[in-house]
Specification:
Elements (H helix, E strand, L loop, with lengths): L7 H12 L6 E5 L18 H7 L7 E4 L7 E5 L4 H7 L4 H8 L4 E4 L3 H9 L5 E2 L6 H17 L10 E2 L1 H10 L3 H24 L6 H14 L4 E2 L4 E4 L20 E6 L1 E3 L2 E2 L2 E6 L6 H20 L6 H19 L6 H6 L26 E2 L2 E2 L7 E4 L2 E4 L13 E4 L2 E5 L4 E3 L8 H7 L4
Parallel strand pairs: 1-5, 3-4, 5-6
Antiparallel strand pairs: 1-2, 2-3, 7-10, 8-9, 9-12, 10-11, 13-14, 15-18, 16-17, 18-19
Length: 439
C-alpha cells in the first residue's frame, strides 16, 4: 500500500479555482510517461507536476479529465489492479481505489479512455491540454478528438479548440498558498542544510561524487523523496560549465568548488548554489571575483518587493556584472556597447533567476500580453548571478582563469519585500572559511 494521501481537500480546492476559468470547457492532464531501462527495469518515477497538483495521484499511465459543472465532473483513467505486476512494480490503486482515496467522481481503467472520453467531451466547447509533452498521450487525445468529430456527422463541427493547459495551470501555480509555501520552505531548508554538510565534508582529495553523496544522504535522511534536478558538483574549471554533471573529478588544493543542488519535498524543490574553496581559504583573486558576484546578488535581493518588474532584475544583474567584468579587466570598452553587442555573455551567459516551485524552473509566464510582468506577494523565484572564466580563455587575465562562481538563493516575495528561504546556507566569505572541512 502507498502512503496515505496527504490532504485530498487541497487538490479539490485547486480544481475548484481552475473551474472558475474554464466554464464550458474540459481540462485533460496526462501522467508523465515511465522510462524503462533494459530488461524491463524502470527509472525512479516522478509524476507530472500538473497531474499531481490537481489530483495527488502518482501512478503512470493515467489521465485526468476535468469538466467543471458537468456530472461526473472529475474523471480519471488509471491502471487496473494487477497482482502479478504489483509483485514486480508495487501497489496500484485501480479505478475503485482512486474513487475511494482521491476524491474523484468517477474512475475508469486506462484501456477505456478511447471509448469513454469522446462521451465525456461531447458537451464541451473546447479543451485545455498540453501538446508535445507526451507523444503517446498526444496520440490518444487526438484520436479521441477525431472520433468525437466523426460522431457528430454533418453538423459542421470540427475538432474541439485546444488551449494550452500549461499556461492555464502555470498562472495558478505561480502564486503560492500558505500550504504550498510550507512545503517549499521545507525543501529549501533541507537543501540549505545539505549544502552546509557538504561544505563541512569538503577538503582536498575528496571527489565530486563523494560530495554529491553527502548531499543525497542528507536529502533522503531529512524526508526528501529525491533531488529536484541533476546534481552539479564542479571543482576548478568544471565550474565554468553551467550544467556540468559528470561529478567524477578530484577536488584539489587551491580550487573552488561550485555546488548547485536542491532537494524535492512533497513535489516542491529547493535550488541553491554555493561556491567555496576546497581548502577552506579563498585566494585574493578568488575572493575578489566572489565578493563582486555576492555584491550583485545582494543588490538584486534588496530590490525585491511587489510591483517591481521581474525583467528589471535581469537587466540590473547584467549591468552590475558587466561593471565587474570591466573592473577585473575581462572586457574593455563602453558598458552600453558591450551589453548591446552581448559581449558580456562571454562570462555571464544566463539570466539572474527563474520561477521556483513544483519544478525547478517552475510554471508561469514572464510576459503577459507582451509586457514583462510585475511580481506579486507569494511569488517565488531564484536569484543567481554568476561569473565564469574558463581556463582556456586567453582574453582573460591569467590570474582569473579557471574561476567559476555562482551564488543562488530562493526567494519569496512578501507584502513589503522578500523572504530568503535559503538563508541558513552560508555565503559570506568569513562564514564559509569557518565551516569548510570541519566535519
Amino acid at each position: 500500500m502507498r502512503k496515505p494521501i496527504e490532504n485530498v481537500k487541497v487538490f479539490a480546492q485547486r480544481r475548484a479555482k481552475i473551474a472558475e476559468e474554464i466554464s464550458g470547457k474540459a481540462l485533460i492532464i496526462a501522467a508523465h510517461p515511465e522510462q524503462i531501462r533494459n530488461h524491463d527495469v524502470g527509472f525512479a518515477y516522478r509524476q507530472d507536476s500538473n497531474m499531481y497538483y490537481l489530483t495527488g495521484f502518482e501512478e503512470p499511465e493515467s489521465f485526468l479529465v476535468f469538466r467543471p459543472g458537468l456530472k461526473p465532473e472529475t474523471v480519471m483513467f488509471v491502471r487496473r489492479r494487477d497482482p502479478d505486476r504489483e509483485t514486480w512494480d508495487g501497489y496500484r490503486y485501480g479505478p475503485e481505489g482512486v474513487e475511494k482515496e482521491f476524491g474523484v467522481d468517477k474512475a475508469y481503467p486506462i484501456e477505456d479512455f478511447a471509448k469513454v472520453a469522446p462521451t465525456l467531451l461531447k458537451d464541451v466547447d473546447g479543451i485545455y491540454y498540453r501538446l508535445l509533452k507526451n507523444k503517446e498521450a498526444d496520440a490518444m487525445v487526438l484520436s479521441v478528438l477525431e472520433k468525437l468529430r466523426l460522431s457528430q456527422g454533418r453538423t459542421g463541427y470540427g475538432l474541439l479548440s485546444i488551449h494550452d493547459a500549461d499556461t492555464l495551470l502555470g498562472e495558478h501555480r505561480l502564486v503560492k498558498s500558505e500550504y504550498e509555501l510550507t512545503h517549499l520552505r521545507e525543501a529549501c531548508e533541507i537543501s540549505a542544510q545539505a549544502h552546509l554538510a557538504a561544505m563541512k565534508f569538503t577538503r582536498p582529495g575528496v571527489s565530486e561524487r563523494q560530495v554529491q553523496a553527502v548531499l543525497a544522504h542528507h536529502f533522503l535522511m531529512k524526508g526528501s523523496a529525491r533531488e529536484g534536478y541533476n546534481y552539479i558538483v564542479a571543482t576548478g574549471n568544471n565550474a565554468t560549465t553551467l550544467h556540468y554533471n559528470f561529478n567524477d573529478q578530484t577536488c584539489k588544493d587551491g580550487q573552488l568548488l561550485l555546488i548547485d543542488a536542491g532537494a524535492e519535498y512533497n513535489y516542491f524543490t529547493g535550488d541553491i548554489t554555493r561556491t567555496f574553496p576546497v581548502n577552506g581559504k579563498f585566494t585574493d583573486e578568488q575572493a575578489e571575483v566572489y565578493e563582486g558576484v555576492l555584491k550583485v546578488q545582494k543588490e538584486i535581493i534588496a530590490m525585491i518587493k511587489p510591483g517591481v518588474v521581474f525583467k528589471n532584475f535581469h537587466d540590473t544583474a547584467t549591468s552590475l556584472l558587466t561593471d565587474l567584468m570591466l573592473e577585473l579587466g575581462l572586457l574593455t570598452g563602453r558598458k552600453a556597447d558591450i551589453i548591446e553587442a552581448n559581449h558580456h555573455r562571454r562570462y555571464y551567459p544566463h539570466g539572474v533567476g527563474h520561477w521556483l516551485g513544483m519544478d525547478v524552473h517552475d510554471a508561469g509566464l514572464y510576459y503577459k500580453k507582451g509586457e514583462p510582468r510585475t511580481i506579486e506577494s507569494n511569488m517565488c523565484f531564484t536569484v543567481e548571478p554568476g561569473l565564469y572564466i574558463p581556463e582556456h580563455d586567453d582574453m582573460a587575465p591569467a590570474n582569473y582563469r579557471g574561476i567559476g562562481i555562482r551564488i543562488e538563493d530562493n526567494i519569496r516575495v512578501t507584502d513589503s519585500g522578500c523572504e530568503v528561504m535559503t538563508s541558513s546556507a552560508p555565503k559570506e566569505i568569513a562564514e564559509l572559511e569557518k565551516v569548510i572541512g570541519q566535519a
